[in-house]
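Task: complex structure prediction.
Instruction: return structure tokens for all chains below.
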Amino acid sequence: MNAASLNPTVCYHCGDHIIAKKVEFENKLFCCDGCKLVFQVISSNDLCKYYDITDSPGVKDPSNVIRSALSFLDEPEIADKFYNFKSADLIAFSFFIPNMHCASCIWLLENLNKLDAGVLISEVHFIKKKVSINFDPHVTSLRKIAELLSFIGYHPDLSLGSTKTIEKEKNYSRIYKIGVAGFCFGNIMLLSFPEYFSNQEIIDSTLAKLFTVLNLALAIPVFFYSASEFFLNAFNSFKQKVINMDVPISIGILAMFLRSIWEISTGSGPGYLDSMTGLIFFMLIGRFFQDRTFKWLSFERDYSSYFPISVEKYGESESIKSIPVENVAINDVLNIKNQEIIPVDVLLISDFANIDYSFITGESFPVEVKRGEKIFAGGKQIGTNIKVVAQSIVSKSYLTSLWNKQKAQKNISKYQQMVHKISSNFIIITLLISLVSFVFWYLNNDFNRAINAMTSVLVIACACALALSAPFTFGNILQILGKSKMYLKGNEVIEDIADINHIVFDKTGTITEVNQTEVAFVGELSPLELRLVVNVANNSNHPYSKSIVSNFSNLIANIEVNDLKEIFGNGIQGNIHGKTIKIGKHDFVVKEPSGLLPTNATFVSIDNELKGYFLFHNKFRNGIEKLFKRLNDKKIAISVLSGDNDTELGSLNEMLMGANSKILFFQKPEDKRSYIQKLREKGESVMMVGDGLNDAGALLESNVGIAVSEDVNNFVPSCDGIIDAKALIKIDKVITYSKSGINIIIASFILSLVYNVIGIGFAVTGNLSPVIAAILMPISTISLVLFTVFLSTIAGRKIK
Amino acid sequence: MMKLEHFSYDNRIVKNFAVATMVWGIVGMLVGLIAALQLSYPALNISEYLTFGRLRPLHTNAVVFAFVGNGMFMGIYYSLQRLCKSRMYSDFLSNFHFWGWQSIIVSAAITLPLGITSSKEYAELEWPIDILIAIVWVVFTINLFGTILKRREKHLYVAIWFYIATAVTVAILHIVNSLAIPVGLFKSYSVFAGVQDALVQWWYGHNAVAFFLTTPYLGLMYYYLPKAANRPVYSYRLSIIHFWALIFLYIWAGPHHLLYTSLPNWAQSLGTVFSIMLIAPSWGGMINGLLTLRGAWDRVRDDVVLKFYVVAVTAYGMTTFEGPLLSIKSVNAISHFTDWTIAHAHLGALGWNGMLTFGILYWLIPKLFNRDLYSRKLANIHFWIGTLGIIFYVIPLYFAGFTQSLMWKQFTDEGVLKYPNFLETVIQILPMYYWRAVGGTLFLTGTIIMTYNLYKTMVLGVFIKEEPASAPALSSQENHSEHDGHWHRKIERRPVLLLVLCTIVILIGGVVEMVPTFVIKSNVPTISSVKPYTPLELEGRDIYVREGCYTCHSQMIRPFRSETERYGEYSKAGEFVYDHPFQWGSKRTGPDLHRIGGKYPNLWHYHHMIEPSSMSPGSIMPAYPFLAEKDLNTKLTAKKIRVMQQLGVPYPEGFDKIAVAELEKQAELISKDLEKAQIQISSKKEMVALIAYMQRLGTDIKPKN
Amino acid sequence: MHVIIVLIILSILISGGFLVAFIWSVKKGQFDDDVSPSVRILNDKENFKNNDSI
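Output:
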């Protein structure tokens, strides 16, 4: 038994709450026939374990792809793009499957051959969300498999970009370094224990000697291999005439190593090898921790992730053939299907088209295009198939040109500058101290002690906070933000965010809900009439009709609608109970041009008598208003840019009462970009928050570009961070959090100064014994790490 | 070109090990129960071959190597084939492994009662058997790596890593610890002496626990628990970290077994530190195991297999927490030499190994015989009395250990020991021994019920000898499924693995060569007054070893007032330099004997051996009348001396020639001394030699009176 | 205490051997995907029933 099947309100397949009509099958409940269907297939192939491993693992299928839409995969030219290997009776390829999310997914996807005998192997790489499939072309085909996958809810990514899998050569060297350092550190500690524990009790001298020699042997790989990156970075920073954190580290390591060799060779002591290896080990772990990014998210996307991989082209004698998008040439005649994105700039040949530009402009409602007019790439046809002639090639369209502009050079945030300053001062001071102490003892002609003091100072100073606390703090912050669905590209983004003083929001789809619009009816409609109207609208796929239906869904009933007629770009009409209901353009519902009535309205007539019109408004995400208020209190300037018409000016105005806020409408992507450019020229550091492609330019231009997405696996333009739509209203907290992160690092730095003062106190006198070093260093390093991680976790509480 | 290969899994070998597990399980536990009862009813030491001293090693060996060993091989042979999507590397090696292992067990079951023992705990078997063990183990290792090499699944599941660790490490541990120079076919002397021998022994002892009783079973847990629960392990990443952390920490935890003994301070502290660090990975493993069942607890209620696993994993958690606890000096001061240690060991053995093995059996046998379990009811009964058994066993022993330890340490206000007579402390805890026997009985009964249940399942089911399977060869998969799939990858894989193997092999070889050189150098006496044993004492010592006196008597007085008051001057490392092997023992069911020499007259020893209770009424020590009948075998004496010389014991040149004569001389004195008390005993009897050894013990640095 | 030298060298060599194994396995990408393998072991029925060598 498993929980979901007991739970009456949840769909056994997808776990969604069952709202209206529930579907029952084998005494299990489903939210929709789709889910039930998938369940039937899975259970009939005895794959029910799918439901055992995790409860209700299924993926509810919002965009039910039309099977025929995948027919292009039958075109060898296109299919070949996916294949990694092809022979007469074996083909190997792999799909990226965004909504693979749990153990059950893995299990089902690896048992594909139970659903399609042609599949020989299917192996999942969960981290990459990739499934690699070998199949027998005699039995099945790429298309069949793709259809199967999307049927069971795992839509493969078939976009133009999906085939160019950039498999970067994985670089494990840091893990090796950590492994080696850890191993040697462990053993060196081990062999140094006699040193620590044998108080008074003399250990066998041969043993002692052997131990130190072994220690040295173990330290060599750590010094030359594990620590190499510190030296390299230090060297490079010298070449660029800046001093970064790795310089003091390298000097310290060097000092420790040489000093130890000297002590061991002269038999004057066991050296500092335990401290050295330990330090290197911890610092490497810190950097590893910091670089742990969200592998399965891609922050670097371009138009190719949005465009279909293929498009249908008219050959001679009206024959239609799918061709790869790259192969579209100017003057090719193309056939664009319902819901299909137009990959190039085109001229319309069909009488009219209904193009949804929300992708590009943010305008949430489709615009009508007449024959001969231009349609820009990225527009999406809504309605019947249309015939167009290509005006550009895919890489040269207006839209793609947006990307080809260079990303603006980021000026380093003041925090980065500060860190640099601190470290350079730090190194100078330590060098000075060590020098002074050397000179001092040298003048008191005690040469040994002079050397001693000088090196020990460097040794101690090496365990500097910034080397450890920064990586651990940033790493931890990234993880914590990730937990609440806010994924940043890397630690430097945190520093930039801490710096932000102006946030620019895109309107549509960012601060407004994507698929919810508020509908108000202006005019006279009796409840019965409204009911009829809604049921007529229910037969149309037009966004207006859809939002009407979704707003009055309670009125939906299966009423017989006679002689339905939908005229694309005009409206829909139908007959119920002898009443003729028309919904659509003014001149469509009543045969006369409209007067001075709002543009974003849809009119209703019953038996050709105008009843009134529906008005549509974007629905703002709840919490947005509070967010604006908080930002105002924080004295962070706000701008809202919208590609939309200005119907919502009023409602927006009252939401951001802040003095330093600005609202602009009818913004083309280019305008948004230049707006941000101007802000930055004024020296503000800007965060751009946007969704779709229309914001891509702006996102690149800003100091920090944050992409908002309903589902982080969906495609977002290239950016510095991806935020789940639900987390958007916390964006101000992210800023405060980043600020406190920086403060934590500063605090830890001060803490480590204390340690250093103590240590250097011993050091300058030239009698810092290895034991003290070995005690002081782990204490300082570990306590620092704990300190930063603890504080940053506490600070992170506010995020949730 | 990809080829789909058809092959079959070898279930016969799995079945064989399964049957062996059940049979030896019962035997081992039965022997244990008898031994337990002998503590409560000394009369049960019916014959010289079945005294506690000889049965206890038999019990430990049977349970550890026969029951757990076979169980482990059963689990590995089943899971490894499936994890590698490949049949075992070689059926011949598999069978050789099986029969080889069983013959080892049988020979152990014969030699140990005969008193043929090296007296090293968990490694008592004599050198010919040791060699056999080494061979069989290497065969197993080859079979394991062979299978891994010809696997058809790219990824090595974490369980396999645990198996690898087991195979490699146990081989090395066994070889090093068993290094000995033979005297005869059934007698050898450890190359190490005293402190060093002890160090090696417990380095082995602890790692045997780690790599024979823990790592393989963790591997099994990571395979069988998810299988039974039908859901993947809670966090696979955690399990990987668990493995690597465990590997790099375990090796070093050995010395803590010798806390407060004559090991140098730092070596002890080292052991402690590492054992405490061990808590982290161990608990990581336990939590990972338990959390795997999250959301499936409803299943645990009606799946007996899961029940066994839950108890097993919990026991693992408790044991691995207790272990480090016991390794803390102050705790160890109380627990060491008492029944607490026994309780700890059994919590691990009965709880962790036992219950996990049972769970695997209940899951595996029905699969192998393609039939449902004969009776779920019986299985549930087994589960409950098994669990009860553990409780009834462990709790009393904790209590016993604690009570006795406190009594040992208790002083009166006048500052003298409250319980100067050791026997008092024993009699105090006897009731606990009854209870522990009850616990043992329950557990054994459970095992018998299980065996019956599974036997029924076997006869009613149809055994699937060969389980057909098919998978594409790894090489062909590589080619296609990888984006940058280069043909050379496959070739690459093997050399690297081979490299690992080579390092290990070389290292074993290297060590075998190194050891003797070190050993000879190290046997230089550090206390001038410490002299080698006389031939008679040496023979007496060998009898002491043969009778397994070390199972109840320690020879290690720790530097506590309570111990020095009771036994005399505390033991010094230098005193043991001629002890091949060391006889420190690990448990004091009887008093420590390191300073027994000269404490009682020969007469006392004579009577005490014939009938212990005649000297100390209520004693639970077995009687050894046969020592007064058997003639001492002096055929090997000369050889023994020569071997000792080889090992660096400074007997004068040619001493071996006069050894027997010397022996008889000394024997005469003792029999004369006994004659004064109207005890007629020929100087040829074993008793005489043993008395000689007793009287010598610990007298080197103590003024003779 | 010379035997301790043996034990130390031995232990270092053993763990050294495991270090090699560790590096090998990382290099081979054994731990790239630390999720799917745990699910993969649950498939007992091989994925390639009922279609023959091709």
